[in-house]
Each structure stands twice: as structure tokens, then as C-alpha cells.
Design goal:
The structure is a homodimer of 325-residue chains.
Chain A (H helix, E strand, L loop, with lengths): L2 H15 L7 H11 L6 H12 L4 H26 L3 E2 L2 E2 L1 H4 L2 H19 L7 H27 L5 H26 L4 H28 L2 H4 L5 H4 L5 H9 L2 H11 L7 H15 L1 H22 L4 H16 L3
Antiparallel strand pairs in A: 1-2
Helix pairs in contact in A: 1-3, 1-4, 2-6, 3-4, 3-8, 3-16, 4-6, 4-7, 4-8, 7-8, 8-9, 9-15, 12-13, 12-15, 15-16
């Protein structure tokens, strides 16, 4: 078993040992439902890996890692209401299975539980962990708001889009790693570097997600294929396509994405994908994704830490980069 | 100016000095809107008063007090979505003025901001403050869930109702005071006593709220009069009425509260109030409210602290008890 697999197992064991069910059942059943689904659990793993990288004490990082995972799942529960997403990890979303009110309130409880988990570590670490955690939490909300704003906004630049995914996705990967480094009492330079590594990795990760939403299969990815197209999300794929398209194609594309467009969803996804293929935007996204991934690899290469452990993190980053789910 | 008024002014000054507006505007405008509305701001005042009572340093308690107020307002923003409440403090609720998605996300941001405020005090106080704060936050969610469950539940006992309002309302008043005591580094006995005082006061406070919802005027109270009746809330008034009523009256009352009842809302409120009057339930609620208030007064009387400051808190409790808004 690799060190990464060991750490992954520590996370899974901790999560399995938690009693998410409680009273009132209507509040806690959705929490148990989503937390026991699994998912990649990559954020808590990053916390442990960063702690390990800087020679920290893994048990001190376990609950902060769980806090990050709980927070991430809370954002999914609330985002799925706003995005009206029916599926998540191949299962019904909380708001679909129960209702929006329950999804709101169970999500709120998860947020408070996440904070409670951050307290289960060495007392002197708590204020610094919370600083990182709260800042990230606010930025994730800002990112989600921008994502919603963009759905209604006529023009979105690629720079605006990249800023949005930085806030919505990359920041939490950065914070997950930063919290691990804080637990290990790494130097300020190391803390900054591992955060920056997380941001670059997070950007690549989200661009991969955008690709998988269109080109992944539902069985692997666990969400509805083409969901971003169906809900008129302005992803990098779309923005690049609008940039590369001739006037005629741009007009067709814009009309397909108009909120009053009447094209049946499967048809709409098919037509949009045809335009994407014609403009070869998949290749364009892969290029920018590669740039971010390379950035992450370089930050890691320059980081002062044990080479074996750096290799573990580099391998995990490479795995995330090449995943197809 | 009394000491209480001075402390109230410190809160108001702190809140006025905050910049709640930020980017993206769609996320922060609702936060500024609700935070700048005013309201009683009784929870942060309780934090400062408890800190003062135990000879703490008021500046250390200011941001934790703001955290409590921000958290309370966050719960209002989310509760108003679930309760479909059109008015709050005489103004449109956030979900009505914007929409549910924005109310969800602005609320989430407020929750994260509340946690961020708790960090703006002496570092060594942070873990204890957060312990109190997170426990209360989870209990408030449990209370809100029970409140929603009760709307659909055929039979609710008075004991169940009292437990619900303890969680939904009293716990946060207790926690507000406890946080002030923690900042002042009061003894464990003092911390427990001031929390218990807050619970008793909070119970009286919520029963008063139930009364005002039915018998207050909208201009004073800032909510729709009879809103609890309109939304089939099982309040103490209703539960007591069901207990005291003869079979015939109980049947009428139950039928008025049935979710498929077609009576026009103003009519329904009028008919329910007539039954309440006939059974004199207002008097019954006042009796139990008086019991809790008396409990609070006695806990305070036995508390080891400066008599002048105890008097300030007792006077404020009396003011809350006799308020009519």
C-alpha cells in the first residue's frame, strides 16, 4: 500500500466511524446520505498529504481534514438546489430526494458541523486553521454567486471565468493543503507554496471537470452528461467556442444558450457538442489545463520538502489530471 | 446614558463601521440590506453585558458579539425562505426582494462571515468561543427542523414544543451570554449560570414572540400579524387551546389548521383568534412565560457578580419581558 493509499484509508476510516445520524432524523438523514456516498474525498486527502509532506502529526490533521470534506459536501447540497441538479455521484441529489427546505437546513447544519470538526485538534492550531477555512468558505460562496451571475450575463470574458473557478473550486483545494501545512507548522514560505500549488491544481481540476461534464459518460462521472450545457453554464469550452467561432456559428451557439431557447435538451446538447467539435475547443481547454498542471508541478518541484513525499503528491496530482470521472 | 445604552451604542457603532457591501454585489447587497436594518440587536448586547458583568474587556467581546448578530441574521434569511415569510422588521424579506437562490447563498456567506468575526479577538479565547458558537449553531438548526416537522405532525405535545423553542431560540440567547462570559474568563460556575439565565430568558422571550405574532400590531412588530396562524405553526397558544378545548371546539380548530383548509387567511386568523379568546389561552401563555422569566430573575439574583451590573441585566430582561414589539 502506498503512503497515499494509507492516508486515504485513514480518511475513510474516520468518516465511517462518524455517526451522522441524529435527532431530528429529517435533519440528519440527508447528512448521513451524502457523507456516506463516498466521492473522491480528495480534499481531506490533500490536507493529510500536506501535513505529511511537512512532517506533521497526522492524527492532528484528521478532524480538520474531515471539516474540509464536510464543508465541500455542504456546498454541493446547496449548489444542487440552485443548479436544480437531479444527480450527484450517480444518485439523487438531496433537494430532489427530500426537498429544498431540508436541503437548505441540512446544509447549514453541515457547515456548523464542519466548524466543530476544526476544533478537534491541538488547541493552539485552531485559530490559524479557522482563518484559512473561513476565508476559503467566503470565497467559495463568491465563486458560486459569480457562476450564477454568469448564467444571466450576456458577455463573460475568459479572465472572468478563470477568476470564478479560482474562487469556486481552486481556493478550497488550496485551503485543504494549507490547513495540512498549518497543522504541521510549516514555514510561511512553505504554507504559501503549497497553497499556490493547490490553486494551480484546482484550476486544472475544474477545467477537467468542465471537459468531463461534456465528454465523460454518466456512469463514470455520476452526473448528468452535458448538464452544464443544459443549464446554460458559461464554461471555458463555451467561452472559447464563442471566441473562435465565425459570426454565423457564434449566432447559432448564442441562440442555443438563450434561456428562452425551446430546443429539447438532448438535441441542444448534441448541437452544442457538434459546434465544440467543429471548433476543436476540447483541444483548447486541454492546452490551458496543461499550463495550470505544469505550474502546479513546478511549484511542487521547487518546494523544500522530502523528495519521496513530494513524489507522492506529484503522483496524486497526475492521477487527478488524467482521471476520467 | 445607562451602561446598557452605552454598550448598545458600542454595538451599533461597530455595525455601522462595517462594510457589508462587496463583490459580487448580488451576494453582498442582501447582507448589507439585512444587517443595516437594525432590529433589536439584543444578542450582541447580551454578549457585551455578560462580558461587562464578569469584569471582562469590552473591546475583546465586540467582534464575537457581532458574530452572534450576524449568525442570527443568517438564520432569519434562511428561515424566511422555508417559512415563505414576506415581511421582516416591516420590510420585504431577502428571498422576496431577491430570490431563494440568492437568499441561500448570501445566508451561507453570512454564516462564514460570522465565524470570521469570532476570530477577531484575543487568540487564546478563540477555541472556547467557537465551541460555544458551533454547538449553538447546530442546535438552532435542529430547532428550526423540529419547527418545520411540527407543521406536518398531527400531535405535538407541549413538552415537545418547549424543547423546540429551547433549541430554536433560547440556546442562542444562552450562547450569546456565555460567549461574553468566556471572553471575560469567568469561572465555570458563572459561565453555566449565565447560560442558564439566557435559556430561561430565551424561553420567556419566544413565548412573548408567539403572543406578539397574534396580538401585536404589524406596525410595531414588523411581521405579518397572525403569520404563525396563517402558516399553521404549532405555537404554545395553539397547543394549549387544543388541550383546553371541548371536543367540538378542538375539531373546529384542527380543521382550521389542516393544510388543505380553504378558509381565506384573514378569516382563518379571525376564527382562530376567537377560539383562543374563548379559551383564554393568552392568559395561559402569560403564566408559563412568567414562570420562565421568574427563573431567569432568580438565577441572576444568585449569581456572584457586581450588584449594579446585575441590576442592569435584570432591567434589560424586564424590558424584553414587557416589550410589545
Amino acid at each position: 500500500m502506498t503512503r497515499t493509499q494509507q492516508l486515504q484509508q485513514e480518511i475513510n476510516t474516520l468518516i465511517s466511524s462518524q455517526k451522522f445520524n441524529g435527532n431530528p432524523p429529517a435533519l440528519y438523514a440527508p447528512i448521513a446520505y451524502i457523507m456516506e456516498q463516498g466521492g473522491k474525498r480528495l480534499r481531506p486527502l490533500l490536507t493529510l498529504m500536506a501535513c505529511d509532506l511537512f512532517e506533521g502529526n497526522i492524527p492532528d490533521a484528521l478532524y480538520p481534514a474531515l471539516a474540509v470534506e464536510m464543508f465541500h459536501n455542504f456546498t454541493l447540497v446547496h449548489d444542487d438546489i440552485m443548479d436544480k441538479a437531479p444527480l450527484r455521484r450517480g444518485k439523487e441529489t438531496v433537494y430532489k430526494k427530500w426537498n429544498a427546505d431540508i436541503a437548505i437546513l441540512s446544509g447549514d447544519t453541515m457547515f456548523a458541523m464542519a466548524y466543530q470538526y476544526t476544533l478537534k485538534t491541538k488547541t493552539q492550531l485552531v485559530p490559524s486553521i479557522l482563518q484559512v477555512f473561513s476565508k476559503a468558505a467566503i470565497e467559495v460562496c463568491e465563486g458560486q454567486q459569480l457562476d450564477m451571475d454568469f448564467e444571466k450575463q450576456e458577455e463573460v470574458s475568459i479572465a472572468e471565468y478563470l477568476n470564478m473557478i479560482r474562487l469556486k473550486t481552486a481556493v478550497l483545494l488550496g485551503a485543504s493543503l494549507e490547513i495540512g501545512a498549518v497543522v504541521a507548522q510549516a514555514s510561511p514560505g512553505q504554507v504559501k507554496a503549497i497553497y499556490d500549488f493547490g490553486i494551480a491544481l484546482g484550476m486544472a481540476f475544474q477545467l477537467k471537470d468542465d471537459l468531463l461534464d461534456v465528454y465523460g459518460t454518466q456512469a463514470d462521472f455520476g452526473k448528468v452528461s452535458g448538464g452544464d450545457i443544459a443549464s446554460n453554464k458559461k464554461t471555458y469550452l463555451l467561452l472559447k467556442a464563442l471566441q473562435l467561432a465565425d459570426d454565423q456559428t457564434r449566432k447559432s451557439l448564442k441562440s442555443l444558450y438563450r434561456s428562452d431557447n425551446q430546443t429539447e435538451t438532448t438535441q441542444k446538447i448534441k448541437q452544442v457538442k457538434a459546434i465544440f467539435a467543429q471548433l476543436n475547443v476540447q483541444n483548447e481547454v486541454e492546452k490551458v489545463m496543461q499550463t495550470y498542471y505544469q505550474q502546479a508541478v513546478e511549484i511542487l518541484a521547487h518546494l523544500e520538502a522530502d523528495e519521496v513525499k513530494k513524489k507522492e503528491l506529484a503522483d496524486y496530482a497526475s492521477f487527478l489530471y488524467s482521471r476520467d470521472y
